[in-house]
Write a structure and sequence with these properties.
elongated
């Protein structure tokens, strides 16, 4: 049932489980692995290339998060106004 037509239920499009998993999880898993690599390289390698790799690996997820937040704030909400 819905507010527009109480006698008819709203149809929901079918979503397969494998499609939704593939659509949702690759980027969070990649960012999690990158963060884990950055933390381990900062912990285990204190000098040289490990320091640079840890900074890069920990900066990329932060940059991606900021970019996604800016895009979400700029996109108008479906309820009217900004989200």
């Amino acid at each position: 049932m819905n507010a527009v037509s109480p006698e008819k239920p709203m149809p929901f499009p079918p979503v397969s489980a494998s499609r939704s998993f593939v659509a949702v999880w690759p980027w969070p898993i990649a960012l999690g692995l990158l963060t884990t690599f950055g933390l381990l390289s900062a912990l285990l390698g204190q000098h040289g290339v490990w320091l640079v790799l840890s900074w890069a690996a920990l900066s990329i997820p932060l940059i991606v998060t900021v970019i996604c937040l800016i895009r979400a704030w700029r996109r108008p909400s479906s309820k009217g106004g900004l989200s």
